[in-house]
Each structure stands twice: as C-alpha cells, then as structure tokens.
Amino acid sequence: MDQETAIEALAALAQPSRIAVFRLLIRNGPDGLPALEISRRLNIVPSTLSGHLAILRRARILTATRHQREIHYAANLNAISDLVRFLLADCCEGRIENCSEVLCLLGASP
Fold it and tell me: In this predicted model, what pLDDT tens digit does every residue of 61-74 receive, in sequence order?
C-alpha cells in the first residue's frame, strides 16, 4: 500500500457514522450485511448511509456484492491488512523487542 491509498482509507474512516459502519461490518465477517440491515442496526437513514457506503467503497475499505435485489457490504479484510501493515512497517525501527504490545494486539509474539 502506498501513502496516498493509506491516507484515503484513514480519511474515509475519520467520521463517526463511517467508522460505525466499518466496525459493524468487521464484526460480521466476510459475509457482510445488506445495506438496509446496516441502516436498521445503526439507525442511519438509508439515503445518508448510501453516501457513507460510497465513500468507504471508493477508499477500498468495503466491498459490495449484489444478492438478487440487495447489495451486501463487507469489510475488505485484505485492504485493512494492507493498511495495518503499512502503518506498522517501520515500528520501532526494526527492533521487534520494542513492539511486543503491538504484536500482542495482532495475535503475534515477538
């Protein structure tokens, strides 16, 4: 991931409704949820939600798949992995022993 793509992803998440959508979809895994279910669970008007979903899709944080008449949105786990990898690439200047707390959060060990 390059810096411009990382900035676009972080900017897309820098809004309360959009980060709520992202967190909801992360909890629901790769199957995601239909747009109307996202709207219902987060109490966001569908027309407003549509704009938020478009921003998150343009930033490649979400994917959208049509299931008959519904569009299901899911977190793009590959893009999120790339973003985390980009953010942590230079962690502690390569001294992994200093990164134990971050690595524990990621489920790894130094």
Answer: 999 999 899 999 99
